[in-house]
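Class, discuss our next protein.
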Amino acid sequence: MKGFRILLALLSCMALPVISFSQEGPSPLVFEAYGCDFGEVEEAGGTLFQTFHFINGSSAPVRILRVAASCSCVSVSYPQALLEGGEAGEISVAFNPARTAGDVVRNVDIILSGGLPGVSLTLKAHVIPSEYDIEDVYSVSLPDGVRLTTLSQRFGYIAAGKMAERRIDVINSSSSPVTLGTEMASEAGFLAVACPERLGPGEAGSLILRYTLPDRMSGYGMHEDSVTLLVNGRPCNRPLTVSCIGIEEIDNKGNTPSLQVYPSRLEMKRKLLGKGYSGSFEIRNNGKSDLRIRKVDIQDGAAADLPDGAVLKPGARRKVSVRSASPELRLGLVTNDPARPYKEMRTR
């Protein structure tokens, strides 16, 4: 790997061309390999993984703006931090061969910020099909023969100011065409859902879920949405639940803070005078740089005496008092700790 990086640096100095889906010139990202052939695989064999190593062959910083896979069967993990000139990185790709057969080719387009030329990676496989029932794949049954793969989608962490996309597969298992639609239960506007307007008998499609978080305080913390599915104009009684956690875009370079919370579970006790409940916990910074509390994400009817933007120096600790109208409470801390950018605390 070390030899590969040295070679890439030399190649970049010679300005040799690299593979790119852009026609505007060579990409600054130079990869060890631009494709992977998994060979012959079983459809029911489970998800396949491949890591692509690269280096920023230019002298200027580069940021991967987003990645676009040609199929929902491919998911990608990529570095979101700024890549300095000569810095190495890796992109992890997962391919699920379920519901594919024969010679399969999938592409992953890497889009860079600032209009820089990107790169296209290619996955290949020869998939041996398996016999299965439609209920095995589309396990959720809705009215009029519509079936989904799941009714829940957790995005995990998304940096504030960024966008992330997931898909849920849907199929019409009936012998008649159906119409589809969605209704949002909240008006926050961070989640957008697109679905096929019509599915013919036996036709499959995808619900596309996209979170776009603002680059401000409202983008931080837990975001939970409920989506009502409409089949032939009628609302289903089983909603689709979607969630994500907005965090700061973390820089892992150099010294970093380290959040520790004690105790790990909140204990709320009824106040002796007045109404409501109160409790406390302690936060500590065991790292080597300032710990910043970007947001205290707390439910309605509760409050904590830890302000947004609070800073703990290395080695510092602070007691946090919490009050609530209910003994049950959920509280989250959005921090710049790269190992724990969101710490959630519950009473149970």
The chain has two helices and 28 strands. The radius of gyration is 24 Å. Residues 134-247 form a domain with the Immunoglobulin-like fold (CATH 2.60.40.10).
